[in-house]
From TrEMBL:
DNA-binding region, residues: 108-217
Any one GO biological process: regulation of DNA-templated transcription
Residue span(s) of domain Response regulatory: 4-117
One GO MF term: phosphorelay response regulator activity
SMART domains: REC, Trans_reg_C
High-level lineage: Bacteria, Pseudomonadati, Pseudomonadota, Gammaproteobacteria, Alteromonadales
PROSITE patterns: OMPR_PHOB, RESPONSE_REGULATORY
Keyword Transcription in record: yes
GO (cellular component) term, any one: cytosol
Keywords, sorted A to Z: Cytoplasm, DNA-binding, Phosphoprotein, Transcription, Transcription regulation, Two-component regulatory system
Stated name of the protein: DNA-binding response regulator
Pfam name, any one: Response_reg
Main localization (coarse): cytoplasm
Localization per Swiss-Prot or TrEMBL: Cytoplasm
């Protein structure tokens, strides 16, 4: 069955353009133009992805995102204004998986959606290897989003080895590393906070200046461990 996507965008033209494009690509789409109504949809129905604009009537996008994260870890792709870096940082800090800056190309939107959905589906598949599994991670740290699970699992598979930002951008975020892009930094910050919230040592993820990030040791991810 095709993925179900919630579009929350108040610009009528943009909303219709996105909705038609997604339906033409066989996605099931629910769309609305109001933040409060969008929040109701997001917490009362099940979606594989939410496309969320920042500037919304009723309830702004960041407030919607904060409330969504109280209820579930559905992947969220934020739609932000050109040049508004603070909005993007705040969105990532609040739990967005990625962002797309307006105006955007529909092909780029499709690629971002496909990448996020692949991560989401991968995170929900049973793991057969002997490495740290998504199931272990999500059971121990249930607040982790799909992209955060991907980052943590990759770092855990390379204990003691720094993974560079360009490498992590390519493998996890599926885009080129930009010198001023803080997307990865915000995801790492979120993982550390969520580790600390469940009693794990946030310092297990070390910033290696000039090289990247690494796990310094393997924490106990046993479910129920305290």
């Amino acid at each position: 069955m095709s993925a179900s996507i919630l579009v929350i965008e108040d610009d009528e033209v943009v909303n219709e353009l996105i909705t038609k494009h997604l339906r033409a690509n066989n996605y099931r789409v629910v769309s609305c133009a109001d933040g409060r109504k969008g929040l109701d949809f997001a917490i009362s129905q099940t979606f594989e992805l939410i496309l969320l604009d920042i500037m919304l009537p009723g309830l702004d996008g960041l407030s919607v995102l904060k409330e969504v994260r109280v209820h579930n870890t559905t992947p969220v792709l934020m739609l932000t204004a050109l040049g508004n870096e603070q909005e993007r940082i705040e969105g990532l800090r609040t739990g967005a998986d990625d962002y797309l800056t307006k105006p955007f190309n529909l092909e780029e939107l499709t690629l971002r959606i496909e990448a996020i959905l692949r991560r989401y589906q991968h995170a929900n598949q049973p793991q057969q290897d002997n490495l740290l599994s998504y199931q272990q991670l999500s059971a121990r740290v249930p607040e982790l989003t799909a992209i955060e699970l991907d980052i943590a699992k990759l770092l855990a598979a390379n204990i003691g080895t720094p993974l560079s930002k360009p490498y992590l951008y390519q493998v996890i975020l599926h885009k080129e590393f930009g010198r001023y892009d803080r997307t990865l930094d915000m995801h790492i910050s979120n993982i550390r906070k969520k580790f600390k919230h469940v009693g794990l040592d946030p310092a297990v993820i070390k910033t290696v200046h000039g090289k990247g990030y690494m796990f310094t040791y393997m924490p106990d991810f046993s479910a129920g461990h305290s």
